[in-house]
Specification:
Layout lengths: L1 E6 L4 H11 L4 E7 L12 E2 L11 E4 L6 H11 L3 E3 L6 H10 L4 E4 L5 H17 L4 E8 L9 H13 L5 E4 L12 E8 L5 E9 L2 E9 L3 H14 L5 E3 L1 H5 L2
Parallel strand pairs: 1-2, 1-4, 2-3, 4-5, 5-6, 6-12, 7-9, 8-9
Antiparallel strand pairs: 7-10, 10-11
Helix pairs in contact: 1-6, 2-3, 4-5
Length: 252
């Protein structure tokens, strides 16, 4: 039985994970981590910080906030515990810390754990390589009104994947308010919409001369991200050390 600690347990994704894990017979939740631990009255033991957890676990799945990263990395290094990091909004310095820790601990990191998004990454890469600079590229993402980071981590994933095709020579332009100059071929436009209960939508637009190609992904529930995180947990506990993503989990 795979023993899991969920960081961000009382958040929307943490609660989705709890519900789905209860339906599975090979994995169980042994504890939760949440800033709101004092308000919880359920059957799972919930702590405010991973440092307070005194039990044992096989893996930690994190859907919380970037400011919990240091404590999770410290716990992982001390206890040699694999991590599944699915939180967005990490800084460049955060990513360096993750990479450094992965030299001794197996870490899975992805800003989006859905199968569809990871297939989409392959599709946009192919489109960019075929269409080249002849097509302008714009990314529009939509999320619910409680999401704190913008643009989404997934939008950055998509933009970075496209930019790899162009040897990272493209520049990101976030919205076009106050812009008074024409669009240049070196731009990738990234636009964020926040409102209502959007789970997550991403449109990638390749706009050329007299034709437009769009590649889209719609998440209809948070289940797709939770199932991906569970698959990542099953994968990462079999690794010795290193930094992994959904391509490794899905073998694509």
């Amino acid at each position: 039985m795979l023993k899991v600690v969920i960081s961000g347990f009382l958040g929307q994704m943490g609660q989705t994970l709890e519900r789905l894990i209860k339906e599975k017979d090979d994995i169980e939740i042994v504890a939760g981590i949440s800033r709101s631990a004092d308000s919880y009255e359920g059957e799972i033991k919930v702590y405010k910080n991973i440092s307070e957890f005194d039990g044992s676990c096989d893996v930690i799945i994190d859907f919380s906030h970037p400011d919990t990263l240091d404590s999770l990395l410290e716990y992982a290094k001390t206890n040699k515990t694999p991590l599944v990091l699915a939180t967005t909004g990490y800084s460049d310095n955060d990513m360096r810390k993750i990479k450094d820790t992965s030299n001794s601990v197996p870490i899975f990191y992805s800003a989006n754990t859905s199968l569809g998004i990871n297939l989409l990454l392959s599709l946009v890469s192919k489109a960019a390589s075929v269409l080249g600079d002849a097509f302008d590229i714009e990314i529009v993402e939509r999320h619910h009104n409680k999401k704190i980071d913008a643009p989404s981590g997934t939008a950055y994933m998509i933009a970075d994947k496209i930019n790899e095709v162009f040897n990272n020579n493209k520049v990101y332009v976030f919205g076009r308010h106050s812009k008074s100059n024409r669009r240049t071929p070196k731009e990738i436009g990234i636009h964020a919409v926040r409102g209502g209960t959007y789970v997550g939508e991403h449109d990638i637009i390749f706009a050329g001369l007299d034709e437009v190609i769009e590649i889209n992904h719609r998440a209809l529930s948070k289940n797709v991200f939770a199932e991906g995180a569970i698959a990542a947990a099953r994968f990462i506990v079999k690794q010795d050390k290193g930094l992994f993503d959904m391509n490794h989990v899905l073998n694509i």
